[in-house]
Amino acid sequence: MSRDTKEYFEEKWKGWKPDLGIVLGSGIQLEGDDFKELDRCSCSEIPGLPVPAVEGHGGDWIRFDHDGRKILLLGGRVHLYEGHSVETVTTGMEILADLGCRHVILTNAAGGIRHGWMPGEVVLITGHLDFQRDGMITPGGSPSVFDLDWQDRLRQFRSGLNLSPLEEGTYAGLPGPTYETPAEVRMLQSLGADLVGMSTIQEARVAREKGMKVVAFSLVTNAAAGTADGVLNHEEVIEAGQESRFKVLDVVRQAIATSGEKVS
Length: 264
Ligand code: HPA
Known about the structure:
- By secondary structure, the protein is α/β, with parallel strands linked by helices.
- It has one domain (about 5-255): Nucleoside phosphorylase domain (Rossmann fold, 3-Layer(aba) Sandwich), CATH 3.40.50.1580.
- Helices cover about 30% and strands about 25% of the residues.
- The chain has eight helices and nine strands.
- The chain has helices at about 5-15, 85-90, 90-100, 150-160, 180-190, 200-210, 235-245, 245-255, and strands spanning about 20-25, 35-40, 60-65, 70-75, 105-110, 120-130, 165-175, 195, 215-225.
- It has a five-stranded mixed barrel with strand order 5-8-7-6-9, surrounded by four helices.
- Strand 3 and strand 4 form a beta hairpin.
- The relative contact order is 0.21.
- Hypoxanthine binds near residues 179, 196, 232 and 237.
């Protein structure tokens, strides 16, 4: 992070180091008595950080105490489809890593490609296809930018609670700004994609490159274009996100519990 950004956080948080950074998809917040807000800063105050424009993405970075863990919620996610560069949409991940954070949870709203997935399904992302850049480059020959051990701990944790296994799938990241055509969705399906969206994978990749461990989840807010009747619109996506936000939050809680970060 830049010297200005560093000075800003030193002044504000005096060396406080988050255990976990969290970025949530449209319309979802960390809500509930177990998330105790300590304080917040507006993205517009943080030097070097882009100011968010899209409805549904609250524009504050918020410090929480959750079960003794130090959590930083990175509100104000920005997207490639707003005209931002890959560097700009991943600035938050750079800052998070430089603050000393080692674990990241990402969520998004996505179109469901896999047959049978209904709006409201929460899916663990186990792989991705990158259509947002010129090349599809996975760092360091790693099998996945998503942390395999963390995924395993999460599966076991859920099974220990007698919860049904999460659905799992491959997320195709597209640049947007428009939703896909039905033909594009058929193409993505034939390439092995189960989900389609416009965020997450650059953040996940940069977080991984910076040495952080990442898990990511999609909330299916709609059937991907052409896989069901009707035309997609952003309001519907926000609405579906609102209706299922507690489901996502529960999965986020489980991901926090299995992050491996110990109470300090
Ligand atoms: N396509 C791309 N991005 C999305 C979708 C979709 O169908 N739904 C929510 N975000």
